[in-house]
Amino acid sequence: MTAAARPLVTVVVPAYNAEKTLLETLRSISAQSYDQLEILVVDDGSRDGTFELARDYSLSDTRVRVLRQENGGVARARNHGVREARGLYIAPVDADDMWHPSKIERQLEAVLKFPGGNGVAYNWYASIDENGIIFGHSRSVMHQGNIFEPLLRENFIGNGSTPLMPRAEILRCGGYDPGLRDSGAEGCEDLKLYLALAEILPFALIPDFLTGYRFTRGNMSSNAHRMLKSYALVMAPIADRYPHLARDIEASQFNTACWYFKKAFHDDDYAQLKKLAPMMARKYPSRLIVHGLRQSWRQVKRQGIRIAKRVLGKPPAQPRIRFTAAVPQAGTAFSDRFASLPARETTGPDLFTGGLK
Fold first, then answer.
1. What is the pLDDT of residues 176-220, one digit of tens each?
2. Cβ–Cβ contacts within 10 Å for residue 310, how many?
3. Could you give the CA distance from residue 41 to residue 319 in angstroms, rounded to a whole number?
4. Cβ atoms within 10 A of the Cβ of 289, count?
5. 136 Cβ partners below 8 Å, 6+ apart?
6. 68, 254, 256, 304, 308 from 297: Cα distances, Å
7. Which CATH number is 3-222 given?
8. What is the pTM of this model?
9. How far is Cα 165 from Cα 65, in angstroms, rounded to an integer?
10. Where are the domains of the chain?
């Protein structure tokens, strides 16, 4: 990338009582191969040592600036960072997630291929636990360009720590919606913004697992009932604007509910299951019957194919390889994916050489 095409990217880190994970997150930001960064940590009224930790870290990386506000939720914290940003692009990352060192550089290269650099870039993610150990990963979807309808059917971006977005367009769309939290439905602020951007901008895919997305009990994404309420509030006005997509939206809501039910079942989260089971039975009785029959048929079909191949002596089919990225291996640390890369200096560049507005 030439010096003339090196715009400043503002990383926005909303942080609430995040002292246990914030340091790991900040180190993954500082280690980015693209160094024209402004790093804004927005302390959302934390009651632990989050502010002090971020302030101390700013002494070792001069690109870090620490902001404070009264507790108002993740949407208000992100919006605060966007308003204060000097960069042309915004890269949000939650204070418990991690990035691969090449994330921003590869995303920016993709975005700058759009006319005027006006687009959004996203990548796949690895699911990590409290200790940064991988236990799963996102589907390797290949959606690019106009992704509005595919994103409406499935939130394949999946979290708030993945995209690179033009600041001007975020502001044009109104930023993240704090009204969801005020309605007791915090959780899908990021998806709402992505859908608004997808209506007006092209999206580029970086086909690699560059985000470490942390799942822990008690974090926002683990509260299934609230997330589903948030999802419904986000989708309702879209269904009104696009009535021809109403059936797709209903199917998406059902599939999202099934995903949370399976996750709660896998995690032995009985409190979530007690809330989800009656809600799904009440709201989706016919869909549950059809879903159960389809799942049973698929299982019988797969078993039948395996038996037929054994009888006929055919070797099992090899999985198709659609991309060259290394698939995250369960039981390994996300940091191991880039442990062999050289460490970067964290003194930081002059912010005023990065293409400010």
1. 999 999 999 999 999 999 999 999 999 999 999 999 999 876 554
2. 10
3. 42
4. 10
5. 126, 127, 328, 330
6. 54, 19, 21, 10, 16
7. 3.90.550.10
8. 0.84
9. 20
10. 3-222, 238-306
